[in-house]
Design brief:
alpha+beta, about 15% strand, signal, 4 strands, Lipoprotein
Length: about 200
């Protein structure tokens, strides 16, 4: 008896589901993403700037001009992003540091000066940072040497400078990384973990 009742229920449910799939069924309107949602902003930044060296360079060039002030805010990491970058308790420690020191509502400027039209980009994987070879030590601040042990494997971190043409000095930044399908910025992370 139970088997017959269950079969009847399944047949009725399947029949109703198939009836709703006919040609005359109206499609529900597509959901419109809200610009105010952080995940939407981050995913749009991820698609505009792919997880490639060229994507990183395009993002850094867009930051250099300062034409999109909201672009910096779209680099704000989420809790899941901290967990994707740092090992164990270092993730929560970094999130606490950045929430109070960087992403605290103050204006953040990453733009270069108008005369600083050149972009110089350096990169290293988390494994290269952990090994701390000559190339990495020449291109990254010394604080990264302590940071290496706290980074998850498989990451590529970027350091960059905005300089005047032909000059090697300028405004220097670091800590750009792509995780969870979008770019995030965590500068001077060794300070976050040392606090």
């Amino acid at each position: 008896m139970k088997r017959l009742a269950l079969s009847t229920l399944l047949a009725t449910t399947l029949g109703l589901a198939l009836a709703g799939c006919g040609d005359k069924a109206e499609k529900p309107p597509a959901a419109q993403p809200s610009a105010a949602q952080p995940s939407t902003a981050q995913s749009s930044a991820g698609s505009a700037y792919p997880k490639t060296d060229d994507g990183a360079k395009a993002l850094l060039e867009a930051l250099r001009t300062g034409k999109d002030p909201a672009l910096v805010q779209r680099l704000k990491p989420t809790t899941e992003d901290y967990k994707a970058v740092f090992v164990g308790a270092a993730a929560a420690k970094a999130e606490q540091f950045y929430t109070t020191k960087l992403w605290n509502g103050d204006e953040i400027k990453v733009a270069g000066k108008p005369e600083q039209t050149e972009l110089k980009v350096f990169k290293a994987t988390s494994e290269e940072i952990r090994a701390w070879g000559p190339k990495v030590s020449a291109e990254f601040p010394g604080g990264y040497q302590q940071l290496g042990a706290h980074l998850k494997p498989g990451l590529t971190l970027y350091r960059w400078k905005y300089t005047e043409p032909g000059d090697d000095t300028g405004l220097a930044f670091e800590g750009l990384v792509n995780v969870n399908g979008h770019w995030v910025w965590m500068p001077k992370a060794w300070q976050a973990l040392g606090s």
